[in-house]
Specification:
Rossmann fold; two-stranded antiparallel ribbon; 3 domains; UPF0229; six-stranded mixed beta sheet; YeaH/YhbH family protein; alpha/beta; rod-shaped
């Protein structure tokens, strides 16, 4: 086994030790983009290490090398500027790249889920294979195979044993009309014009060779077409313009599952870094999961304190303001965006909100719950992130649970640390409304 085979074997061993998916979601670096890179443990390859302190020695050579019998001095230590010093470089990290479809499938298996896209289906038209035909088109799309087949069929339909028909015309007293009727009755595809021309070309001395058609039939055999083709080949094939057909792609109508995910996050002053991290650990896998499940997935990110505004994903998890909290402002903005861009008849809708459950007085009861009831969606979910446990004024999640918890499309999850993240994801995804 050579060095290359060793290297591949070590890599294979390392990839089998990829970080567990749940562990990655709870504690791994989720990154900032749409790519899913799960760390794998790479086995270190064996290598030779040279000690520069042992590079001295005795020998003969050119210019300055010791002569036999000369004392040998102590080797000089390296100045440390050389490249590749042992122990200088940190360990390499490699990653297993997972696409959203694979992530969704593995998360289903890991959490015991088996979810399929539900709700709206939009019929989309797209170009399929070049299976349809038209009489005009560019030369590059000419269906040569069909043209050849049509010409061949015509060639075979026009072929007949010419010598047999000429012998028929040598029957005593036969007229061109009688010969033509005989040919048609016996399925010989000869034209009347051809018979007229052939009759005129027969010498007078050969006319009357056969006393009757029966006598000619008894002495002359009509050669089958297949036998004649094997003997003579096909020769030329007559192509005609009416046989030309040009290929163009058929229009395929497919059901398209579209999903829009509204991610809402509290960015008020009480949302410290540890709370923000728990929101990211919950929302990012949910985004990956739904991207893998649906044909088309779009995401909207809304940040709010006492007011709400739409932000880009790269800013969503890092924003922190010093204002108060009014969760209803985010749902009001979400309702406007869904109404304008993502009509319920065409889109599957998911509305995910997260925060520390702290809200302004009576806002949950008077504004948020009616808004959640009014926004048509496959799923409404609220994730409470309280690393130190529930605060006295953190009642939003409890109020939503009490008022809407019996609905099939409302989920409430509590995350106090990374260990709770996968359980929260399961609670959310297993609550999706079947209708």
């Amino acid at each position: 086994m050579g060095l290359r085979e060793d290297f591949e074997r070590y890599r294979e061993v390392g990839e089998k030790r990829r970080q567990d998916l749940a562990e990655f979601i709870q504690y791994g670096d989720l990154g900032q983009g749409d790519d899913i890179h799960i760390p794998i443990k790479i086995v270190s390859l064996p290598e030779f290490a040279y000690d520069r302190l042992d590079m001295g020695g005795v020998g003969q050579g050119q210019g300055g090398t010791p002569e036999p019998g000369d004392p040998v001095g102590q080797p000089q230590p390296s100045d440390g500027d050389g490249e590749g010093e042992a122990g200088e470089e940190g360990s390499d990290h490699e990653y297993y790249e997972m696409d959203p479809e694979e992530f969704a499938q593995e998360l289903d298996e890991r959490l015991g889920l088996d979810l399929e896209p539900k709700g709206k289906q939009v019929e989309t038209e797209e170009e399929g294979e070049l299976t349809d035909r038209t009489r005009t088109g560019p030369d590059s799309t000419l269906d040569v195979e069909r043209l050849f087949k049509q010409g061949l069929k015509r060639k075979l339909a026009m072929e007949f044993d010419e010598e047999y028909v000429r012998e028929l015309l040598r029957v005593e007293g036969i007229t061109p009309e009688e010969a033509f009727r005989y040919a048609r009755t016996n399925h010989i595809p000869v034209s009347k014009a051809w018979i007229d021309d052939a009759m005129g070309a027969i010498p007078d001395a050969e006319r009357g060779r056969w006393r009757s058609i029966e006598t000619m039939e008894a002495n002359v055999e009509c050669e089958p077409l297949s036998q004649r083709i094997r003997r003579e080949g096909i020769g030329h094939i007559p192509f005609r313009r009416e046989d030309e057909r040009y290929r163009y792609p058929e229009v395929v109508t497919r059901p398209q599952h579209n999903v829009v995910v509204i991610n809402i996050r509290d960015v008020s002053g009480s949302m410290r870094e540890d709370k923000r991290e728990l929101v990211e650990r919950t929302f990012t896998p949910l985004d990956w999961y739904l991207t893998g499940k649906y044909d088309t997935a779009e995401f909207v990110y809304i940040a709010h304190d006492a007011s709400a505004w739409e932000v880009e994903r790269e800013d969503f998890f890092g924003i922190r303001s010093g204002g108060g909290t009014k969760i209803s402002s985010a749902y009001e903005l979400a309702a406007e965006i869904l109404e304008e861009r993502y009509p319920w008849r065409e889109w599957n809708r998911y509305v995910f909100a997260a925060g520390d459950s702290e809200n302004s007085s009576n806002d949950t009861e008077e504004r948020v719950i009616p808004l959640m009831e009014g926004i048509e969606a496959n799923l409404h979910a609220y994730v409470e992130t309280q690393p130190s446990g529930s605060a006295i004024n953190a009642t939003h999640a409890e109020e939503v649970q009490r008022r809407l918890g019996d609905r099939e499309n409302v989920a409430v999850a509590y995350v106090s640390g990374p260990d709770d993240v996968t359980g929260a994801i399961y609670e959310i995804l297993s609550t999706e409304d079947e209708e």
